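Quick one: structure for this chain?
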Amino acid sequence: MTFGERVKERRIELGWTQEELAEKMGYKSKSSINKIELGINDVTQSKIIKFAEVMNTSVEYLMGWDEAVPTSGQESEYYLDDETREMLQFLDENPEYKRILSSSRKLKPEDLAIIKAMIERFS
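Got it. Here's what it folds into:
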């Protein structure tokens, strides 16, 4: 199942229309959600994180890394704390760090901080 298919499946589970999800995500219209669900539009890593937050699920589920759909009582590794979320957002917003992001999902916040500091020293 693709990212878009998982978004659609979760949206339907939540009983939301494409319009409602678009509004919650900050999109101007449902057409953006429709294109994402159909696999026409690519989604940035920061948007994937936001989809998980808004839809009360995990990045791992939306990406197909985990079949279970965590809900309110369960949280993804990405949401251990605000520091982790901030670090992942930093990695996503700085293209030179994007390679790290794909392997970072199992790292602890302190490990991510060490990697970031090492890269900054070499830059």
